[in-house]
Write a structure and sequence with these properties.
- The chain is α/β, with parallel strands linked by helices.
- It has twelve helices and eleven strands.
- It has a six-stranded mixed β-sheet with strand order 1-5-6-7-9-8. Strands 4-3-2-10-11 form a five-stranded mixed β-sheet.
């Protein structure tokens, strides 16, 4: 396990693809942890499994909300290396990683670990490799190196800080590229979903591919906190607490929380969901955060200003929430790819 920041950095920027046994065993351990994650913040569903909802309303901590990652190991590095103000962590090392070690901060990722969005050039080169019958060529290997370095460190962080690091399922958490049970096969710049599946099968084999698919099914779908809610996408329909906890039994809820496109929502769903999940006293000044669809600036409002999209693939922004203060989006957005984020 990666127990110090230097090893985290080495894992993120390794020039070698993870080995088969390491990747399989890491997936198995993480999947086992998620299967058994029945806690005060993750109540069990009707079948006695860890439910699909994370509830931190009774245990608020300063929280980092991470938008879509999309195979950006440098993004993960900049998050962990970011220096928090002294009012939150009064140590010589004020990094988010050190704050995690001290139990002083929580991280919630909105999903989408794989498939780079930085440029279409690589995906076009990968498509050319596949068209010539090569599924593990240099361009695809470079893509998967970034993606797998990202995934393995996220799993290591979950194992190291199980109560503090959380990753919600996004629409790209579909390693088998299947359509059904709330998932859909994926393609944007090329046939990314199929090509990732093919690479994983040819390079690692069916056992690793299967283990990652099992892990994806154990991921939570939504998080509720004192004065905000988080999911990957904008919910198309209104659901209530018990439905979110049991969401893995309802493909439509999975689809709503991972795939809903801007414009698909015809009525105001977010205010009703927030009213159902948050305490009445906390509704004023509260928000529902998600990623999924890109924004041009730091964030974009929908649903009368209550729904906030925070995914800008050309930036490395996170949201920092102080549970003792009302959320101020202009102050809460931290820009990690600017100079001050690399101190």
């Amino acid at each position: 396990m990666l127990k110090d920041f230097s090893r985290i950095k080495a894992g993120l920027f390794s020039s070698n693809l993870p080995g088969h046994d390491y990747l399989f065993n890491l997936c198995e351990k993480t999947c086992d942890l998620l299967e058994k994650e029945i806690t005060d913040y993750r109540p069990a569903d009707n079948k006695g499994r860890a439910g699909a909802l994370l509830d931190f309303t009774s245990n608020p901590l300063p929280t980092i909300i991470v938008p879509d990652i999309h195979a950006r190991p440098d993004f993960i590095f900049n998050i962990l290396n970011y220096k928090l103000p002294k009012e939150y962590i009064n140590y010589s090392d004020r990094s988010i990683f050190h704050a995690l070690k001290k139990g002083l901060v929580r991280i919630i990722c909105v999903g989408d670990a794989l498939h780079t969005e930085k440029t279409i050039n690589r995906w076009q080169a990968i498509q050319a490799e596949f068209d010539s019958g090569i599924s593990t060529g240099p361009y695809m290997s470079a893509e998967m190196l970034e993606g797998l370095n990202t995934i393995t460190v996220l799993m290591e962080l979950k194992l190291l800080f199980p109560d503090l690091v959380h990753f919600l399922k996004g629409n790209h958490e579909n390693i088998l590229n299947k359509s059904g049970n709330g998932d859909f096969a994926f393609g944007k710049y090329a046939d990314e979903g199929y090509m990732v599946k093919k690479f994983m099968f040819d390079f690692y084999g069916d056992d690793v591919l299967y283990m990652i698919s099992c892990l994806e099914k154990e991921l939570p779908l939504i998080s509720v906190n004192k004065d905000y809610v988080i999911s990957h996408a904008e919910p198309e329909n209104v659901y209530f607490l018990h439905e979110f906890i049991n969401a893995r039994e309802n493909p439509k809820i999975i689809e709503d929380l991972t795939w809903t496109a801007n414009g698909d929502v015809k009525t105001l769903t977010v205010p009703k969901i927030m009213k159902a999940l948050l305490k009445k006293d906390n509704l004023e000044g509260s928000y529902y955060f998600a990623g999924h669809r890109p924004v041009n600036g730091d964030f974009s409002f929908r649903q009368n200003g209550l729904f906030v999209q925070i995914h800008n693939p050309s930036k490395q922004n996170i949201v920092f929430i102080d549970p003792n203060k009302k959320i101020n989006l202009e102050e809460s957005i931290l820009h990690l790819d600017k100079k001050r984020g690399k101190k």
